[in-house]
Amino acid sequence: MDINLTIDFDFDAFEAEVYKAARAVFAKLQRDYGGETFYTFNLVTGDVSQYVTVFVDSEEELTRNAGEEQLSPGLELSIEDRRYLLRHSLRNNKFNTGVTGDEIDSSFSDASNMLLALQTQVEALEDRLIDEEDADEDEFDEFVYETIHEPIEAALKRVMQRLDREGAFEETNARENVHLGVLSSGDRGELLGPYTDLNPASVCAKYSEDVEAYQNARNKLDNPQTSQRGCRWFGFF
Question: What 8-state DSSP symbol labels residue 180?
Fold first, then answer.
């Protein structure tokens, strides 16, 4: 059975709302933490697109977090290796948690509420089509991905591109040192960049170098001559 349904969602209004909130949030973070050197800015959705938030990080916070990681006795990694392990991974940090995190979530509340209403609509369709009409679940998942998740991701990327044209990410760092992304919280721990549609070639090349350094650091952890027993792995939110 082919699924041919119409979703009642104003993607343009959603994009405008995200842009308004993101512009304010990114500006405030750079203003409030002007002594930090921000190197990554990301819009983040829930793994089923049920909210919008951000993930940002600075070189200084990265170093602080890398220094705080507790590894098992006898397992030695340099601070630089630890920085590469954490550099592009979603995780808790001072810019995304606590009072700051609450303020960010509040800024995106209208956009998140739009997604929650959409999710409720999708769940109702799923109940009707799968439970009552015996539709194919894989077909429905494909319909949701193509009709909802892909357009939402595209809208978030357009927001980041617009902000980038406005120079919104260059208050504390040069643009060639900043990587932009659009992530899902379900992708935690995965290195999904470089985002070639959001970043210049030089930034993408640097990200690829970071990935290689990440893999080298992971190999040190996975080396059979080095015990990982008792190691506390890096925490994501």
Answer: E
Q: Is 35 exposed, middle or buried (0-12, 13-18, 19+ CB in 10 A)?
A: exposed
Instruction: Identify residue 110 by its one-letter amino acid code.
Output: D
List pLDDT tens digits, range 86-130.
999 888 899 998 889 999 999 999 999 999 999 888 888 877 776
Q: Which long-range contacts (CB under 8 A, 24 or more apart) does 192-199 make?
A: 193/88, 195/157, 197/157, 197/161, 198/157, 198/160, 198/161, 198/164
What is the model's pTM? 0.87
Of the candidates 142, 152, 148, the residue with the CA atom closest to the CA atom of residue 45 = 152
Chain segment 62-83, per-residue pLDDT in tens: 999 998 865 555 567 899 999 9
